[in-house]
Write a structure and sequence with these properties.
The protein is an all-alpha fold. The chain has two domains: 94 residues, no CATH class; 30 residues. Helix 1 packs across helix 3, helix 1 packs across helix 4 and helix 2 runs antiparallel to helix 3. The longest helix has 27 residues. It is found in: Endomembrane system.
Length: 126
């Protein structure tokens, strides 16, 4: 059972990477590109909008919503294009992890959180 779950998670990560690649492909329609970029960025981000320590809801996005979004968007992209990007994503999975990239993503999420906090602070001050 653990082997199946581990394989499923690996395929989900591969498809998220393939969506990221498809979002940069000129053969993919713009509306699909925009959605693919958002879903892939969320899937590949080390920070969740709903933290995992919140019971049930914490894992709801990773276990249910994210796979549905990835599968749905994969079907909107031409199968030949998606197969090409899946193959590229497989080769990218063997590359070393970039800690600079992870730090950049964490920095972006921090800036977004600070900006939202400032906006909420101003809203409640008035």
């Amino acid at each position: 059972m653990w082997a199946r779950l581990k394989n499923w998670a690996r395929l989900l990560r591969r498809d998220a990477t393939a969506l990221w690649l498809a979002a940069r492909d000129p053969r993919v329609p713009f509306s699909v590109k925009a959605l693919a970029a958002l879903v892939a960025a969320y899937a590949l981000s080390p920070i969740d909008l709903i933290p995992d320590f919140i019971p049930v809801l914490g894992y709801l996005d990773e276990v249910i919503l994210l796979p549905i979004a990835i599968a749905g968007l994969s079907r909107l992209i031409d199968p030949a294009i998606m197969a090409e990007h899946r193959a590229t994503a497989e080769t990218l999975a063997t590359r070393p992890v970039s800690f600079a990239g992870a730090a950049m993503i964490a920095g972006i999420w921090t800036l977004v959180a600070v900006a939202l906090s400032a906006m909420l602070w101003k809203a409640f001050q008035n």
